[in-house]
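Reply to dn_fold:

You asked what the input looked like. This is it:
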Amino acid sequence: MPKRITSTHILVAIIVILAVALIAVLYATSVQPPQQARGPERVVEIQPFEGDSSVWGRNFPRQYDSWLQTQKQVQTTFGGSIDFDRLEKYPAYLTLFAGNPFSTDYDEDRGHFWSLEDVRTTARITDKSPATCYACKSADVPGVINEMGAAEFYKTLFKDEVLAAKFQHPVGCADCHTPDTMALTITRPALQEALAAQGTDWTKASRQEMRTLVCAQCHVEYYFAGEGRYLTFPWTNGITIEAIEKYYEDLKFKDFTHAISGADILKMQHPEYELYVAGSTHYAAGVACADCHMPYVRDGAAKYSSHYVASPLLYANQACGACHTDVNYVTGRVTTIQSQTAMLLAATEEALVEAINAIGEASKDEKADAAKLVEARQLHRAAQLRWDFISAENSTGFHNPEEALRILAAATNLARQAQLKALEAVTSAGLSGN
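and this is what came back:
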């Protein structure tokens, strides 16, 4: 008769199985080292403030190779990275910027690869220009600021040979990353100070928020404050056009006196960040600058953020396709928005030129009403501030279409008011003389 299997037999079998399994685990761990989480292969140790992006590229070749593509010069419908002469393409600028260096040299910006060369060759740089003009043009800037301090750096002359020799590399890795962990970081004091003044602790920002903030180090409106030409963002009252205008009005600041109208004019820089975060649909949805301008791409099994920072229209499938299924529809919408903005920009330019000329003619009349001319110049200042805010911003309105159209509509209205006020100054003088 076969032996009967009892509960004792089952228990013994389970114990034997567990014992064998335990011995196997102990053997495996005794002959094999514990597996470590694998990160990027580090070929070289990157030193603090290393401005040469090719050194970083030895550890991150895909990112570096994509960054090298910023040397491409590509034309898009309303911009691009070809250094064409804006004064030739938009002759109204000669009138709009009369009395300012932008009326003599206003070329389109090229990509990050060319940032250092472009700032050194522009005719707008003179023997009196401060080193502040280097602030967003070289990955060597963080190291120089660490060495000299921001205030000393800013007040040094741009053409100081000792200082100029310190800048050898264009915008690159060191501008936005820490060399040890590759975490995103803010290296420019101006943004750190502007955020602190608003009560914002950027060190607590999420990674997604940082993918916009690192761009805000440079793609903003700014001015040089005081005799030390200290780089400052006019954000104390907020970042809308009205808040920025109030900041400059309270300060009684001007960039130049217009050579025709005599108005105290503010020259806007490139307020991409301000326009984008002021209620745009994409920003409200949590989309960061890098999502569109540095989209994730694949190289085989590897996924990484492209550092070919350019117009998303040049790689729409990656940039737009990450969220939108119909990329052709999206790019068509971009064309529509930018075309509308461009038309309104042109209409505003026309209104401004006519206002400038009207004020200039009225100023020649010795009997013109001085008070009305003051009003006309103030209206010119307000109108040009708004026009230039959208004109100098590099998306032709797409970063925030509704806000761009609102600002341009206000600019056109103010320009026509300025023109009428200039005519009133002459008309009232003629009536008073009868």
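The beta strands are 223-225, 230-232, 256-257, 264-265, 296-299, 302-305.
Hope that clears it up.
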